[in-house]
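My current task is to audit a protein record that another person submitted. Thanks in advance; the entry in question is below:
***
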Amino acid sequence: MTSILGTGIQEGLLLKPVTYPWAYDLYNQAVANTWFPNEIQLGEDLADFARMSDDERHALTYLMSYFNPNELLVNKALAFGVYPYLNAAECHLYLAKQMWEEANHCMAFEYVLETFPIDRKAAYESHVTVPSMAAKEEFEVAYIKRMTEETLDISTVEGKRDFVRNLVAYNVILEGIWFYSGFMVALSFRQRNLLRNFGSLIDWIVRDESLHLKFGINLILTVLDENPEVATDEFADEIRGMILDAVEMEERYNRDMLPNGILGLNAEYVNDYVKYLADRRLEELGFEPHYNTANPAKWMAAANDTLQLVNFFEATNTSYEVNAQA
């Protein structure tokens, strides 16, 4: 029987015939999506930043404090916790592109920190000094430690479960819930005609992350399909519990990000969106929704499907694809 899991160095050295077309298709889409941060003229947003309130600037700085180190943390999870345990060449191709994208996102957030008058030292320190932010990072680090500092035997049922736990922690929770929650806050400024170019940068990052999420969900479902002994009721309850715990952590984080609220946005609004996201991720994994919360930010569904312009004068299309066919 074909298995996507395996640690043999000489396995996965031939791409064709492709065993998992979904991974190959995602790789090709990821290549088409290639972009570079300096293609966006962020300096044009400086006037907006100057007229934002202290609470608005706090929210933006808070997002940078979280996103910047965690893009690199995702890379560690991929390099140490996913890539070594897969034997399909098409998966390795996609993961290599995803790791480059995470590095590119890190550089994009550095670009934001370099452009806006943000205290970089304070922003860097926040992911350690702010308890709600540090708690999220500790949650993620605990899972990758099983893959790096401890022994993981992927041939055992428990080893396979640890592999799935890491995927849920990083692909589903970190990228699929926590990152998306932050993206919504970041893009909410553009809803008020602020930071339009920054919004375009976030659009590109969201487009990448949507593929990361698709890859992670497909990988989890493939592992469970090929290894049905892994998916006991007890393990399912554990995975579901991880996601619900993650929602509570995100709620505390969002209250720290928006202690007073800003125009059109407060922590309760963002947390409703978090619950909506969690229900979608639960459904994608085969669970029933838990919160049954309506999407308070329906504009997010269309935010990345519409043609965005960097500004009204330089009609730069942020929906372009490399080598796209007319």
The two ends are 41 Å apart (CA to CA). Residues 157-191 form the longest helix (35 residues).
